[in-house]
Structure formats: structure tokens, C-alpha cells
Amino acid sequence: MKSLSSGQIRQMFLDFFQEKGHTIEPSASLIPVDDPTLLWINSGVATMKKYFDGSVVPKNPRMTSSQKSIRTNDIENVGKTPRHHTLFEMLGNFSVGDYFKREAIAWAFELLTSPKWFGWDKDKLFMTVYPKDTDAKKYWEAVGVSPDHIIEIEDNFWDIGQGPSGPDSEIFYDRGKDFDNLADDDPENYPGGENDRWLEVWNIVFSQFNHTPQDTYEPLPRKNIDTGMGLERVVSIFQHARTNFETDLFLPMIHKTEEFSDHKTYNTSKQDDVAFRIIADHARAITVAIGDGALPSNVGRGYVIRRLIRRAIVNGQRLGIKTSFLYKLVPVVGETLKTYYPEVLEQKDYIAKVVRSEEDRFNETLADGLKLLHQVIQSAKDNHQVAIDGPTAFKLYDTYGFPFELTREEANDANLDVDEKGFKAEMQKQKDRARKARSGAKSMGVQRDLLIKIKDHSEYVGYETLDVAKAKLLAIVENEKLVSETKADTAELVFDQTPFYAEMGGQVADRGVILNDDGDKVADVVDVQHAPNGQNLHTVKTQEPLIKGQTYHLAVDPLFHSRVEKNHTATHLLDQSLRNVLGGHTQQAGSLVEPDYLRFDFNHFGQVTDEDLQKVEDLVNKEIFKEIDVKTTITDPKTGKKMGAIALFSEKYGDKVRVVSIGDFSVEFCGGTHVSNTRDIGLFKIVSESGVGAGVRRIEAVTSKNAFELLNKEEKALKQVAANLKVTQIKDVPHRIEQLQDEVKTLEQKQSALEAKLAGQQAQNVFADKKAAGNYTIITGVIKDAGMAQLRQLADTWRSKKLSDVLVLGTGSGQKANLIVAVADDKVKSGLKAGDLIKSIAGNIKGGGGGRPNMAQAGGKDPSGLDKAMNAAVSWLINK
């Protein structure tokens, strides 16, 4: 067999299908765009949905890709099995209404067996087919596959609910008896069973049915091909690796981890190899995901990143690694992927910074988690329990990142078990919550064949003009039918030319009117979207019937369009300003360009300070005031990148692209409309900045008239403040506020001193009333007109005078109550704890609290319960 690197194998697959007329699609970002059904891109076909459901017609119906993907549904198996991963690459070839079974099968066999390509022994290949799919079986036999190497399996049918579905055929590679981990008569010992010998390397889905909302299967108007080949598995075959981990995709991280570990080495026969594998796998996943814009957090994608980092750190501890190390694997991951994903290595410093920060934070949490685990174990032993309950084990897993196996390992050392069934039940609840959060949208739409049939050429002329006197009406869609004349109140129209911009790239669609030859309005254009074949599809509210084949006057609302243009160009200036101020790692994570405001989402680790936000705003306005010409160049993507144009992961670029340049300050790929000079924007003003997700910040801003109106509104409010402060000039407001703050501070100090004096006077009576409570002495009292600061001062006085064993004081007014408990030092040493006492009495004031063994405090919202709390404290001590 050939000796190939992972990079060579990936490229060979893509080159093969390129020779077969396929367009090589770049690997999309792991973060899905406009797809609420997915947390991550989890397969090659996930990026092809719009083609498969017919919402967009690809320029080439034949496509191929190597798509990075993430799946964490079976994360507990990562490292334990030879082939489970969180991040993996899926090689695939796709046909949208073009070739079908015969070609897909013939090409698959050619790639796998031809000496020019993979050159595998055909006798080592086995294929599974759907029993009713006689065509697939016939085509496999036609290319030379022996009938006894074709197995019929009932489960070979791909179906994810409503949308495209169909039979599939899986390809297995026989790795030989050395890999046979089952007995000869084991029912799973066959190609397609759960075993290590026959390795599944490719799945070809013959998408030929629409799974309808009525749960029927109707033939698709256009049949599709969707295939998936796991790169990691194929590499393991070429590199004679027993598992996917002994390949050039993982070994560099494993060997680097060996350098950090406590003199431990990777050996597949040792228990430690699981920890090495988990670290290598998770290092890959977090590095690529953070590079694509994901950041650690407690929700969504961020939770996955945090969980992977913590799982890797815990396994590092099992290897004797006590300090932060995971961030050092980031450049190693970058090196393994640089031939196809050079951007990972380019961002290594930023990614490592994010990982290091999370590692340092978790190393502190880990110590707390271990402490809690040991407390749980001790409590279980004290209460003569035989196992740690499931919810507690899940808390350790979910909050502190402890894998179930680690909890069980620690528990077993103490002769305890762990309720695995209860743990799995809690895990399932979490999965159900996540699934429910994404269940509102369809995974893939049913093909809307009607719009695909509209293939007439339509030209967008809005870059040059907003008014077209004669536009021929080519197609009318009404109630999901192509008609020759409108009769309903709403319709969708396609013209041979149009000045109306279709919504794209965050820029909203144009609005305007349609007039007849007499100049009378016949319809309002309320929305414009792209039809599957690229035409601008106008949604209109009709006043008069429109007739196919006639010409009409199309007029865009110029004011609406102009205001949108101003905000769009300002968005480009904002994007570059953020990079300049915060760093080149910031990436656009979404935008919305409306006539009244703009919204810009971007990836950033940490908050944006007021100072940096002001720098960003000032920089945008600086470029506006420079009066820079905005130029558009039409070129190819390669030339555009050489010009320095910024490209977005979420966008697919065709053979020709528009590069929008604002001097040498900003250069971006963009199909939107823009002002001709930055002076047209007038003014830029940030309205708000906030976090909207894990590592995603949002800026909302206004320009031109809206910015002017905002400043006027703020000035009016400031003048009102000046009037209230009785200052004649606005510039004196800050100084007057400082004066008032000083006066308030002085009054607060006087009030505090007065409260302390009053509390001290009351305390003389309280301190004189010492009671016996069981084996202890206690002083209790409710102090009026005091705060927590006064209670703490009284407690210090009590301690210095050694007036009793325990002190309990309370104060309150309105709906606020406070308690403080102090315990003498000698009683603390004997086991009496202030925290235990305050927890037992805080409920009387409808509150809670805690603290140190010698002093604790609580807050509540029911002052009427203070006397009850005093009595409860005495009772607690008596029963102690």
C-alpha cells in the first residue's frame, strides 16, 4: 500500500473528484450560519442544505469538499475506542440533480482501487446496501465487486425527518484477522457489525425521496448524491495504524504531551493511553473551534469548548501534569493542519491566549472540585452509604468538569461505588434540554421545485441606477403556482432587470414601487430575496393586476436606499476599526444594515472597555471626516485576496467578486451597496455595546441624521441635568456632580458615625444580658437604626472583651434584615462553627448566608423575624 500523509490523502480525494467535474468547496466555519438546528457543523452535507432543499441552485451541481466537523454526542467514548473523535474531517462528493447511483458507485470504486489513486485491494472491500435497493447492488457488481462482498442491511436508509432521504451504501475495509476482536461466531463479526476488523470508510447516500410532513416518501424532483468519508479512518489504513490516534493527525500532540507528563509515555497497551488520546483529540477540537470564533462559556458552543478544555486538563492531571499545558499544544495542532487550514497557525497566539486563560481559571476550580469530591466521599462513608448518588456525580461532571470515570475511580479507592444509572439520567435530561432548544426549526427543508424552474436571466442594475423605465416581467408566482397574471393581493415577481437590491450579507432589501406605462402605481415592493437560480425575487403588494410579458417602471425608494448605504459603509469602517483597536483576531459574526441603524456582531474574548469603545468610534469618524472615496473593483477571489480583502467564513464567493475599498483603511469582499465617499455618512455614533453569546459582542450604532438626532437628545438631557444642578454652563456639570458626591460622602460618614454611636449605646444593654444555652453562653440582641458595618464593629468589641461563647445580633428596617453570628476562638477549635449556626436561623428572616467558622452573616427580607432568629439561636445551642 502507498505511504501517504494525511494532507496528501485529503488532496488526492479532492483532486479525483475535481477531475470528474466537481468544484472544490472550501471547508466552512464550524459555526453554522443561519441554521438554528445545529450547534456545530457536524458533517459535509450540513453546509450543502441550501442546495439539497432547492433554496439555492449551485453554479456547478457537482461539488466536493473536506469539511471540518464537530460532534460531542458520544464524548464519553473518545479515547477509549480506536475511532471516536470530537473534531473530525469529512471528505465528500455531492451531486445536486446531476449524476446518481451508477456514477457515484463507479467513481467510489475507481478512487479506492485504481493504482493512480488509493490503490486498495478490491478483495479487502465490502459493501452494504438497502435490501430494496436492487440498483445499488447491481452497480456494485458491474464494477467488479463479488456478490459475496455485498451485504444487505435493513438499516441502510438515511432519514433525518422531513426533507430529502433515501437508501445508502456503506463501504468497509477488511483490516485482517489481526484486528479481529470478536469470536468467529459472534453475531457482530461481519462487515457492518460492531467490530474492529471491518472498518467503515465511506457512506454513499442516494437521496431520492422527499419525507413529507404527512410522513410519506415521495420521489424527489431532482435526485441527489451525498457521501461522507472519514479522513481520520482512511489515514489510519494508509499509515498502518492500529487506531486513528497513531497517525500524523494526532501523534504530534501525543508526543508533545509526553514531554509534559510525569515520565509517562504513550503505549496503547497501558491505561494512560486513554488520557493521551483524549488530550490530543480535545486539543484539536478547541484549537480549530476557537480559531473559527467560538469561545469558552457556560452556554451553547461555549459550554462545549469549556467542557473539552476541562476534560483535557483533568486527564492531564492523571498523567501527572500539574500546571497549564494545553495552550502549548495549539501551535502543534496548527502544524498538523497547515497544508489545508493555514489560518489555524496564523491565529495560534490568540487561540493559545484564550486556552491559557481558561486553563488557569479551571486549575483553581479543579482544586475546589477535588475538595468537594473528597467531602462527598467522606460524607458517604460517615453515613454508611455504599455509593455516591447520580445527581452529585453529574454536578461534579457538569460544574467542575470531572469525567464520570474519574469520580468512580476516586470513589472506588474509598471502597464506594457511583450510581451510574442516575448519572446517565441527569446527562439525558441535559441533552433533552439542548435538543428541545433547537427543535423549533426543520433540519432540512423540503424541495421547493417551483422556483427552481424559473431559469430566465435577470440582471441587477442597482449599482448604477435606482430607476428602470422598462423592465419586462418574466415570471409571476402566486399561491405556489406560476401564473400569467396576478389576481391575489400578494405575489412574487421576476423581471429581466431590476434596481431593487435583494437582501444579502446583512443588508436589508430595497423598498419601492412598480408603475405601469401610464405612471400609475400597480404594486409596492415590500421585500426582495434571491431565487434559487440567483434572480431577484420581488415580493409585492398589488394594487392592479400585473401581466407576464409586459414592461413596467421599477423605482427604488431613494431615501431608504441612501440611508441603508450610509450604514453599510459605516459597518465596514467599524469592522476595521475594531481590528485596529482590539486586535486582528476579531471576526465578524453577523450584521444587520437597516435604514435607521446598524448592528454589528463580532467575536472577541472579554469585554470591550469604555476607553476602547471610544477609540473605535473616534477612528470611524476620523475616516469619515477624511472624505475618502469608496471604490469597487470587480475581480476574481484570488486577486481580491492579494489586494488584502477580508473574506467571511459564512460567504461563498463565485468566479467574480466585488472588492470594496475605502482608501487603504478597509478592503473587503462585499456585494452590497455603498456611498461614493465617506463624507456622505456624515457622522457615526455608537448607541450600545453588549454581549450576546459566548465570546460574541454586539455594537449598535447610528449615522447621519439619526446620529445627529441622538446627539441632540443627549444634549437636551444634559441641559436638563445642568438646570437641576443650578449651573449655567454644561461644561460645569462634571465639577458640580463631584461637589455633590463629596457632600453625600460626608453625610454618609456622619450618618455612619451616628449609627455607630446609637448602636454602641444599645449594645451596653445587650452585652449585659448573657444567657446560658446548654454547654455554652450566648448574647443576642436586635439593634435598631444600624447597618451591617455597625454589627461587625460590635462583634469586634465583643470578641476583644470575651463577653460570651457566642454572639448573635440582628438589625432591619423596611424589607431588609441582617444577621451576624460570632463564635469565640476557643469554641471554634472545639468544633462550633458560626456558619452552621447562621444557616439554621437565617430562614426566620427569609434569607440565607454563610461565612468563616468564627464569624458569619446573613441577609433577608423579613425584619419581623429577627426576634424568632434570636430564640432559634438559643435553641440551636441548647441542642448542640
TrEMBL record:
Domain Alanyl-transfer RNA synthetases family profile: 4-713
Entry's cofactor comment: Binds 1 zinc ion per subunit.
UniProt entry keywords in alphabetical sequence: Aminoacyl-tRNA synthetase, ATP-binding, Coiled coil, Cytoplasm, Ligase, Metal-binding, Nucleotide-binding, Protein biosynthesis, RNA-binding, tRNA-binding, Zinc
Molecular function (Gene Ontology), one example: ligase activity
Its EC number(s): 6.1.1.7
SUPFAM superfamilies reported for this sequence: Class II aaRS and biotin synthetases (SSF55681), Putative anticodon-binding domain of alanyl-tRNA synthetase (AlaRS) (SSF101353), ThrRS/AlaRS common domain (SSF55186), Translation proteins (SSF50447)
InterPro entries listed in its UniProt record: aa-tRNA-synth_II/BPL/LPL, Ala-tRNA-lgiase_IIc, Ala-tRNA-ligase_IIc_anticod-bd, Ala-tRNA-synth_IIc_core, Ala-tRNA-synth_IIc_N, Ala-tRNA_ligase, Ala_tRNA_ligase_euk/bac, DHHA1_dom
Cofactor: Zn(2+)
NCBIfam families, alphabetized: alaS (TIGR00344)
Described function: Catalyzes the attachment of alanine to tRNA(Ala) in a two-step reaction: alanine is first activated by ATP to form Ala-AMP and then transferred to the acceptor end of tRNA(Ala). Also edits incorrectly charged Ser-tRNA(Ala) and Gly-tRNA(Ala) via its editing domain.
Family in the record: Belongs to the class-II aminoacyl-tRNA synthetase family.
Protein name (database record): Alanine--tRNA ligase
Species of origin: Lentilactobacillus diolivorans
